[in-house]
Amino acid sequence: MKKIEAVIKPFKLDEVKDALHEVGLQGITVTEAKGFGRQRGHTELYRGAEYVVDFLPKVKIEIVLEDSMVERAVEAIMEAAATGRVGDGKIFIVPVEDVIRIRTGERGSEAI
């Protein structure tokens, strides 16, 4: 099993969610986040005063899935989240040792 963590632009969330659903994934966890990478934030003007926005709004998506689904899920996220501009996000893939469903005690693939 693997865990995919994807950090994307917030306005792309619905497109990514729909793309993952089409691939056959049922459950995702979404967290609002702030951060920056190469884009390093930007300056904005508010009531005549210029200020720096260091941390930009992002959305972090987490999915735990079978190894056989990873490539399809990654491709779906990449296609749906891409704008072609700096700040589109990142995808991290991490091994998962075990999963336990609290309600039933099921483990592994059955718990996903």
Q: What would you say this structure looks like, in words?
A:
The chain is of the alpha+beta class. Helices cover 21% and strands 37% of the residues. It is built from two helices and six strands, in the order βαββββαβ. Strands 2-5-1-6 form a four-stranded antiparallel sheet, covered by helices on one side. β3 and β4 form a beta hairpin. The radius of gyration is 17 Å and the shape is elongated. It starts with a strand and ends in a 17-residue tail after the last strand. The model has no long low-confidence stretch (mean pLDDT 90).
Integer-rounded radius of gyration: 17 Å
Number of helices: 2
Biggest sheet layout: 4 strands, antiparallel
Strand order across the largest sheet:
2-5-1-6
N-end to C-end Cα span: 10 Å
Shape: elongated
Summarize the helix and strand pattern as letters.
EHEEEEHE
Structural class: alpha+beta
Strand content: 35-45%
* Model regions low in confidence, pLDDT < 50 over at least 5 residues: none
Query: What's the count of strands?
Result: 6
Write the layout of secondary structure elements.
Elements: E1 2-8, H1 13-23, E2 29-35, E3 42-46, E4 49-53, E5 56-65, H2 70-81, E6 89-95
Antiparallel strand pairs: 1-5, 1-6, 2-5, 3-4
Helix pairs in contact: 1-2
Short synopsis of the structure:
This protein has 2 helices and 6 strands.
Which descriptors would you attach to this protein?
4-stranded antiparallel sheet; 112 residues; alpha+beta; two-stranded antiparallel sheet
